């Protein structure tokens, strides 16, 4: 695999990687493995000063995280598009930005949520746009970026923002310059898109990139996705961000890092 300049710009997603370790040890493990940054969607159970200490001792930045997304065991996957959760969603914005600021993180993702039965798509869409703009305006005051990640039905059934083109439509609709796309090559391929083509078409909107192979959402090299064209497209469009490794290790994190070590 030809990572080129991106070999030194990989971020370890510590919600997926190093899960054999306590959360307190994962950032340091990622740094030892060669990741230059880390990411995690939900750190709120731990006080911010404690998480900041983990990051400082590991010597890596936290590149992106999320707003509270609810109880996954109950099927909750965020609230930004849910009309009956507007008050709760908005109540989380400032506390989350306070928390994230203490960690030095600059990108935050408000998950849209799962479509409730009986609610019209147009109402979900309007709610999402209003709530996305609300978060973006609060984040802009702090110099932060709000990121939108489309998640396909193979990962979350009935997720409201379920396609990269839908995410792009939302970003363009609200017209905030600090709302950007989290481009996940795995979701893109699973939805039948050509990731390199989408990168070239929407490069100015991309703030962060994530990768995993398909099938299985394991480490690159275990499936059928051709990653060289993806990295070539990122290089071509001048993408200067990090590439998040958000995959389920097939046989343990360390055992599956050969793809990084052998990449050129």
Automatic annotation (TrEMBL):
Gene3D superfamilies for this protein: Divalent-metal-dependent TIM barrel enzymes
| Membrane-traversing stretches | none
Source organism's superkingdom?
Answer: Bacteria
What InterPro entries does UniProt report for this protein, alphabetically? Answer: HyI-like (IPR026040), Sugar_Epim/Isomerase (IPR050417), Xyl_isomerase-like_sf (IPR036237), Xyl_isomerase-like_TIM-brl (IPR013022)
Q: What is the species of this protein? A: Methylobacterium longum
The UniProt keywords, alphabetically, are:
Isomerase
Keyword Transmembrane helix recorded: no
Entry annotated with the keyword Isomerase: yes
Which residue intervals define the domain Xylose isomerase-like TIM barrel in the entry? 27-262
Q: Which family does it belong to?
A: Belongs to the hyi family.
Q: Which Pfam families match?
A: AP_endonuc_2 (PF01261)
**Under which name does UniProt file this protein?**
TIM barrel protein
């Amino acid at each position: 695999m030809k990572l080129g300049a991106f070999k030194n710009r990989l971020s370890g997603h510590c919600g997926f990687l190093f899960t054999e370790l306590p959360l307190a040890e994962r950032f340091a493990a990622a740094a030892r493995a060669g990741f230059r940054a880390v990411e995690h969607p939900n750190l709120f159970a731990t006080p911010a000063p404690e998480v900041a200490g983990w990051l400082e001792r590991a010597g890596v930045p936290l590149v992106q995280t999320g707003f509270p997304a609810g109880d996954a065991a109950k099927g909750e996957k965020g609230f930004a598009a849910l009309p009956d959760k507007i008050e709760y969603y908005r109540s989380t914005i400032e506390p989350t930005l306070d928390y994230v600021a203490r960690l030095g993180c600059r990108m935050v993702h408000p998950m849209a949520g799962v479509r409730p039965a009986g609610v019209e798509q147009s109402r979900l869409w309007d709610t999402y746009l209003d709530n996305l703009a609300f978060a973006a305006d609060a984040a802009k005051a702090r110099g932060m970026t709000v990121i939108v990640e489309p998640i396909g039905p193979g990962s979350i059934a009935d997720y409201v923002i379920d396609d990269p083109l839908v995410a792009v439509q939302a970003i363009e609709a609200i017209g905030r310059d600090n709302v950007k796309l989290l481009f996940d090559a795995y979701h893109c391929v699973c939805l039948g898109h050509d990731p390199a083509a989408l990168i070239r078409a929407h490069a100015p909107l991309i703030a962060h990139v994530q990768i995993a192979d398909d099938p299985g959402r394991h480490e690159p090299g275990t499936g059928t996705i051709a990653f060289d064209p993806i990295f070539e497209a990122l290089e071509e469009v001048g993408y200067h961000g990090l590439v998040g490794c958000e995959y389920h290790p097939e046989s343990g994190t360390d055992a599956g890092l050969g793809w990084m070590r052998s990449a050129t």
